[in-house]
Amino acid sequence: MTTHTLETPAADIVYDVHGPAPAESPRPPLLMIGQPMTAEGFTTLASHFGDRTVVTYDPRGLGRSVRKDGREDHVPALQAEDIHAVIQALGAGAVEVFGSSGGAVAGFALVTAHPEDVRTFVAHEPPLIESLPDADAAARASQGMRDAYQAKGFSAGMAAFMALGSWQGEFTDAFFAQPPADPAQFGLPSGDDGRRDDPLLSDRSLGVTNYHLDVEALAAVPTRIVVAVGEESREVFTGRAAVGTAERLGQEATVFPSHHGGFLGGEFGYAGQPEAFAKKLREVLES
């Protein structure tokens, strides 16, 4: 693996190139993008594609990528321009992209703005609120999570996030009638560290979940788009959003092994089925 820094006026973007150099790869480079997850989250998945060039990166303002634009929010359109710049720096022409969660949303922004950059785009569980039939209730539930974080800090916010993310089906009155999520129930520490800048729990990533999908533009691009959903997460927020997004694009969501983090190994203690996940991803990309 080699690490590179792409200096732009707005940010210094750090990315890693795994495997053979692009000129020696039997297939186009495969970019793996997340948000707020950084490159390290793709360590296990990338290891299953050692026969080809894999590129991972840290979005601006996260991990090793230092932003210089004075902003704190995470905006898919800006991330798309960073990814476009990385693709240009690779100099290998159009690439394949696997985007998960917020990375899938950034991938949609990339394909919309620069369709010539991407041959195949696999969008794994993009958390697009507008794709849900209960969009208003989902927005209310998400705001409740952010309110918990602002009021009591990381543990309270993360407990609320986990309660939201594990809820099965639409956000009904039963969801909102629950007592506040207890951090201890999820093994989270008590107390408040005083910080309110977490990219997942604060309002800094509202641009991701509130991203507007340009369905008409995406229907006209040459890029092959595949929306993916985890077999274990079809009934929770991100899985339902994936199914809804696929329907809006006139397709059926492609089922992948495991859950929202199905490609993870031991990176964050939330392991999925990375070997089976990688096998499915390879099948989709090569079909």
Structure overview:
By secondary structure, the chain is an alpha/beta fold. The chain has helices at residues 43-47, 76-90, 102-113, 135-152, 154-166, 173-176, 206-209, 215-220, 237-248, 274-286, and strands at residues 2-7, 11-18, 30-33, 54-57, 66-67, 95-100, 118-124, 224-230, 254-256. Strands 1, 2, 3, 4, 5, 6, 7, 8 and 9 form a nine-stranded mixed beta sheet that branches. The longest helix is centred in the middle third of the chain and has 18 residues, at 135-152. The mean pLDDT is 97.
Give the topology, please.
Elements: E1 2-7, E2 11-18, E3 30-33, H1 43-47, E4 54-57, E5 66-67, H2 76-90, E6 95-100, H3 102-113, E7 118-124, H4 135-152, H5 154-166, H6 173-176, H7 206-209, H8 215-220, E8 224-230, H9 237-248, E9 254-256, H10 274-286
Parallel strand pairs: 3-4, 3-6, 6-7, 7-8, 8-9
Antiparallel strand pairs: 1-2, 2-4, 2-5
Helix content: 25-40%
Distance between the termini: 27 Å
Broad structural category = alpha/beta
Sheet with the most strands, sense and barrel status: 9 strands, mixed
Mean pLDDT across residues? 97
Strand content: 15-25%
Order of helices and strands: EEEHEEHEHEHHHHHEHEH
Parts with pLDDT < 50 across at least 5 consecutive residues: none
Q: Please provide the count of β strands.
A: 9
Tally of helical segments: 10
- What value does the Rg take, in angstroms? 18 Å
Outline: globular
